[in-house]
Amino acid sequence: MKTLNEQQLAQISDAINQVEQQTDAELVTVLAKQADNYYYIPTLWAAILALLVPVLLRFTPLWLDGLDLLKAQWISFACAAIVFRIPAIKMLLVPKAVKQWRASSLARRQFLENNLHHTKGETGVLVFVSQAEHYVEIIADRGISLQVDNSQWQSIIDGFTEQVKAGNTQQGFISCIEQCGELLKQHAPASGEKNELPNHLVLL
Predict the structure, then answer these.
(1) Relative orientation angle of helices 150-165 and 169-187, to the nearest 10 degrees
(2) What DSSP character marks residue 4?
(3) What confidence tier does 192 reach under pLDDT thresholds 50, 70, 90?
(4) How far is Cα 194 from Cα 56, in angstroms, rounded to an integer?
(5) Neighbouring C-alpha atoms within 13 Å toward the C-beta of 86
(6) Where are the domains of the chain?
(7) pLDDT, mean of residues 15-26
(8) Cα–Cα distance for residue pair 175/35, rounded to 1 Å
(9) Residue 58: which pLDDT band, with cuts at 50, 70 and 90?
(10) Which of 94, 162, 175 lies closest to 134 in space, CA to CA?
(11) What is the pLDDT of residues 79-119, one digit of tens each?
(12) Which sign, positive or negative, has the C-alpha torsion 50, 51, 57, 63?
């Protein structure tokens, strides 16, 4: 996963500033490397593999007693647990539904922790990305969600997700922010100057 440099972070901040000059919405962007450490996943798969070892050994010409089988199980468990903790392998072992659930939960926590639910007129909008899960979500407070249909956000999310998968996170953020801006200035045009929340990308 690529780390954004200072210039890229500044470009994202500039894009947010430009959008907020045209709308009453408060836009906050959050980038997480991953939504969870998933430490239990390698252990779970290693345990399943270790349980299958005696069955697999039955189809070999080896004659092993109970103690030998137990040793084989422990060795296979320890080796698998280490190998399965390699980040690239670990993420392949995590079920998609689990990754989406963890990322979605983190997105909602970030919505609250960044005080998007306390903006004047309930106009907070969160753009959340978790790189390891290739997960993108846009959460809008009631003042915006009553004006903008979820299907309109979804088309932006789909495009951004493809950018994240391709490793173009920074360009994806800018494109997403600009598209959000087009929607927001239509449904929540600027009625005055305000800046209640930070305009920089929040890194987790």
Answers:
(1) 170
(2) P
(3) low
(4) 66
(5) 7
(6) 6-36+95-203, 40-93
(7) 81
(8) 23
(9) low
(10) 162
(11) 888 888 888 888 888 888 888 899 888 988 888 888 777 77
(12) positive
Amino acid letter, 170: Q
C-beta atoms surrounding 177 within 10 Å? 26
CATH of 6-36+95-203, one of 1.10.287.70, 3.30.450.40, 3.40.50.300, 3.10.310.50: 3.10.310.50
Q: What is the pTM of this model?
A: 0.78
Q: Is the pLDDT of residue 39 over 60?
A: yes
Pairing of strands 135-140, 202-203: unpaired
Specify the amino acid at residue 109. Answer: R
Calculate the CA 8 to chain-centre distance.
Answer: 19
pLDDT average, residue stretch 119-137: 84
CB 153 within 8 A of CB 126: no
With 80 as the cut, is the pLDDT of residue 57 above it? no
Paired tokens of 190 = 């600027």
